[in-house]
TrEMBL record:
Species per Swiss-Prot/TrEMBL record: Corynascus novoguineensis
Biological classification of the source: Eukaryota, Fungi, Dikarya, Ascomycota, Pezizomycotina
CC terms in the record's Gene Ontology section: endoplasmic reticulum membrane
Membrane topology per record: Multi-pass membrane protein
Protein task: Mannosyltransferase involved in glycosylphosphatidylinositol-anchor biosynthesis. Transfers the third mannose to Man2-GlcN-acyl-PI during GPI precursor assembly.
Subcellular location: Endoplasmic reticulum membrane
GO molecular function, one term: alpha-1,2-mannosyltransferase activity
EC number: 2.4.1.-
Enzyme class at the top of the EC tree: transferase
Major localization listed first in the record, in broad terms: endoplasmic reticulum
The protein's name: Mannosyltransferase
Length: 675
């Protein structure tokens, strides 16, 4: 039996019965009753993993929309800087300048970037093709982590419920068909990797420590292979905590319950050796991961630093997290969990409720521990003002496992007690309800991944390909132009400011999609008020660059005009002599080839560049800018931020030759338009 379990990849759970079958028939079948041949089980595990890898790879290719900037600015921008150096044009936000993030996560993508670029350079591939591959590479890498997350969800469910139950397969179908998983699992959020690390660590955790040791002669941590499994679990958990310090809430619960069971408080008859082994491995594994992390951060930042401490200092002591929004205390209960589970929410609620009541079986104790960890994390994070759904994303695999037996019981016919569940076909019931749920899930996944906020990605493809057309001599990915390296603003080798983004900050990705260092661009920023103290008037009145652009003018003028004349082009709007223009260019106020923004700002741009307002001349009228739409794209059916509503548009300023179809556009008034 043990050898078969080893080949199968599933640890033996002698007390873990089939919750799904017990709900349906009132009887529990033992796993020994319906054993599967070891080679068949191993082949099944291998096939499941292959199918999941293929599925998530296709998932990554289908995700063509923008969700949140952290997907790029907390992973791919530092990864690009790691791979191609400080002259590559990567945008490192304030969090990286103040070492709030561990370099472990971007190092994964940085190494992938470097390896892929070296391989493609050795093959002398065409630069635009290399750029296209580098843009797609992170999603491909993340697809592997997403598939592993799905696999370990199924594997842990199989460990808990047993092979004879339908519940593990229900958990697998839930994670595959969950719209949130399709939308987010292949995105390069640290939360996505944290989710995979968490469920994998839980799968390797020695849950036998929660069992009744009075009836078990074997000490669980002294069984063959159990210490190795514990080490894998602890290493994965430690990495997850370093990536996202809030992940420690899950492990404080799991460790607390496990330690309690190993002491007389848990009615345990185990020897002290089990506790000694547990604490020894925690110290060894934790120290090893911490040492690697410290060394990697030392290499990345250039000096010794500890990002988790910096994260706590800035977000807790300095209260900077609230700068990015406040949510009510019930946000995770009324919005977070429903968004994560969507149509599976009713089964999730039942699973959480049922797991609250622990019986004396190992299965029940495992589910209870997972339930307590889930509730602890939700309650604790609810006390913090700044909340986002992805902060509780690591709980989603647990929610799937808790809900799986009740979903299986609801949609499948109870199996006969005389028929082995492993050999009998699954008989579905309530098929219309199931079809409606799956249709809704597929609609949500398809719309969110293909259409909702797709313009921020497609506009960068337009800019990149147009840059390739206009500047075919500046497509070196690894080396910035010599003048740019020296910071010479008036050198003839330096390319013009190709694009100016007048959008809310971080509306689009950056160098991970622009690729070429010579493609110079500028966007509005939103740095937090690091120079202010918490709860001061100065902090309350602070406005970042993006806020100042969208600030309504007190004199009733169109918003943005004053910002453009006083901050963006202060010299160019006060005189036309060459010295003023050179001074403005040196200060970053040069006129771009293209301006990118949502269509709502077009009146602002025309009021600034073209239209006089009564006796007042347009501030930028003497700059020689003639706005022409050259590209636009639909950005979704709705957006909660009024600044991002409408189509995303690219305007040609007309100050450079060779812009995208400028002559043809002037002839017939066409606009390059995308869905």
């Amino acid at each position: 039996m043990e050898s078969k379990r080893a080949v199968e990849g599933l640890r033996e759970r002698p007390e873990a019965g089939s919750v799904g079958d017990s709900i349906q028939t009132g009887k529990q079948e033992t796993a020994a009753s319906y054993e599967v041949h070891a080679q068949v089980a191993a082949a099944q595990v291998s096939d499941i993993l292959r199918v999941l890898l293929l599925f998530r790879f296709l998932n990554a290719l289908c995700v063509r929309t923008f969700f949140q900037p952290d997907e790029y600015f907390q992973a791919l921008e530092p990864a690009w800087n790691f791979a191609f150096g400080s002259d590559s044009g990567a945008w490192l936000t304030w969090e990286w300048q103040h070492q709030l993030r561990s370099s472990l996560h971007p190092a994964i993508f940085g190494l992938a970037y470097r390896a892929a670029e070296s391989l493609m350079s050795s093959l002398s591939l065409f630069p635009p093709f290399k750029a296209l591959m580098l843009v797609a590479l992170p999603g491909t890498v993340q697809a592997v982590f997403a598939a592993l997350g799905d696999f370990y969800t199924w594997k842990l469910a199989m460990d808990i419920y047993g092979r004879q139950s339908n519940a593990p397969w229900a958990a697998l179908w839930m994670t595959v068909l969950n719209p949130w998983q399709w939308y987010c699992s292949t995105r390069t959020f640290s939360n996505s990797l944290e989710t995979t690390l968490t469920i994998a660590a839980l799968c390797y955790w020695p849950w036998e420590v929660l069992g009744d040791t009075k009836a078990n002669r074997n000490q669980p941590l002294q069984q063959k292979g159990r210490v190795s499994s514990l080490r894998i679990s602890l290493v994965l958990a430690a990495i997850a905590v370093l990536l996202r310090p809030t992940n420690i809430l899950i492990w404080l619960v799991i460790l607390g319950i496990s330690v309690t069971r190993l002491t007389p408080l848990g009615n345990s008859t185990m020897e002290m050796s089990a506790l000694i082994i547990l604490f020894r491995e925690i110290v060894i594994c934790g120290a090893a991961v911490l040492a690697v992390s410290l060394l990697l951060d030392r290499l990345y930042f250039g000096f010794w630093t500890f990002p988790p401490y910096k994260w706590l200092y800035f977000n807790i002591s300095q209260s900077l997290a609230v700068f990015y929004g406040r949510m009510p205390w019930h946000y995770y209960l009324l919005q977070g969990i429903p968004l994560l589970t969507t149509t599976f929410l009713p089964f999730t609620i039942v699973g959480l409720y049922k797991a609250t009541f622990s019986s004396n079986t190992l299965q029940s104790k495992i589910l209870n521990a997972l339930n307590i960890a889930t509730l602890t994390m939700i309650i604790t994070l609810s006390l913090i003002s700044h909340k986002e759904v992805r902060f509780i994303y690591p709980l989603l695999p647990i929610l799937h496992i808790l809900a799986a037996p009740y979903l299986a019981a609801f949609f499948t016919q109870p199996t006969s007690s005389s028929t082995p569940p492993s050999t009998s076909p699954v008989a579905l019931r309530r098929k219309l309800t199931l079809a409606n749920l799956l249709s809704l899930n597929l609609f949500l996944a398809g719309y969110l991944s293909l259409f909702h906020q797709s313009a921020p990605l497609s506009v960068l493809s337009f800019l990149r390909t147009d840059f390739e057309r206009i500047h075919p001599d500046a497509l070196d990915i690894t080396t910035a132009p010599s003048s740019q390296q020296r910071g010479e603003s008036d050198s003839k080798d330096k390319k013009e400011l190709f694009a100016l983004f007048l959008t809310p900050c971080h509306t689009t990705p950056w160098r991970s999609h622009l690729v070429y260092p010579a493609l110079r661009a500028r966007a509005l920023t939103c740095e937090p008020p690091l120079h202010t103290a918490p709860e001061t008037q100065e902090r309350e009145a602070y406005l970042d660059e993006s806020d100042r652009f969208y600030l309504e003018d007190a004199e009733g003028e169109t918003y943005g005009v004053r910002f453009l004349s006083e901050e963006m082009w202060p010299q160019l709007t006060t005189g036309n002599d060459s010295s003023n223009r050179m001074d403005a260019a040196a200060r970053g106020g040069e006129v771009p080839r293209y301006i990118v923004g949502f269509e709502g700002i077009e009146p602002v741009l025309r009021a600034f560049f073209e239209h006089d307002r009564g006796e007042k001349e347009a501030p930028g009228k003497g700059m020689g800018v003639t706005l022409t739409r050259v590209w636009s794209a639909w950005n979704g059916a709705f957006n909660e931020d009024w600044r991002r509503r409408g189509r995303l548009v690219v305007w040609d300023t007309g100050v450079y030759e060779g812009s995208h179809g400028a002559e043809e556009l002037e002839k017939d008034g066409r606009v390059v338009d995308e869905l």
